[in-house]
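Hey team,

Filing this mostly as a record. A colleague (T.K.) asked me to run one chain through the structure pipeline before their review meeting, and I want the input and output archived in the tracker in case anyone asks later how it was produced. No errors, nothing strange. Just documentation.

Input sequence:
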Amino acid sequence: MPLIALTGGIASGKSTIARRLAEHGAVIVDADQIVRDVQSPGSPVLHRIAEEFGADVITADGALDRAALGAAVFGDPERLAQLNAIVHPAVRAESQRRFEEALSADAGAVVVYDVPLLVEARVDDPWDTIVVAHAPQAERRRRLIEIRGMDATAADARIAAQVSDEQRLAIADAVIDTAGTIAETHAQTDALWERIRPR
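Output structure:
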């Protein structure tokens, strides 16, 4: 079972690549969705977050208040490390369970782990191929402002909070340049699929 890690900075076009690979038959395991799942109301992870960060990060209906938690850790490396120590092991365990589930369903599956924080958290895992979605920082900033509706200050802060493009590109086995058209991104993704698909 080829195990592919797909990463990229915010607004880098990673989701476009993941959707195209899914159209070819890849099984996509979404790290962001796993984070939401392991932090669902009543979960052990959410209980530990509430213990560590206080009741203010839990909404009236028992869900995680992501904005409040984000405000509590943003710009504070020590608090962020405390949060990661709670969340990352649970995400790792659940992602591994989903990889194995995909393999048991289809021994020939190509599993793609769509993971923003690969450099920060999972770079040493035994990936067969690490794919980096890449667009210049100025283009990603434009997308955040024009497409996602962020103000410039928020966009700059989100980009600055992530590892550098150079750090991501340094670990890449394959780079998909997403600065052009969707068709160009699809063409590069199709070529990647030819490299990684089961024979």
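Quick notes for T.K.: The chain has a mean pLDDT of 93. The CA atoms of residues 168 and 188 lie 18 Å apart.
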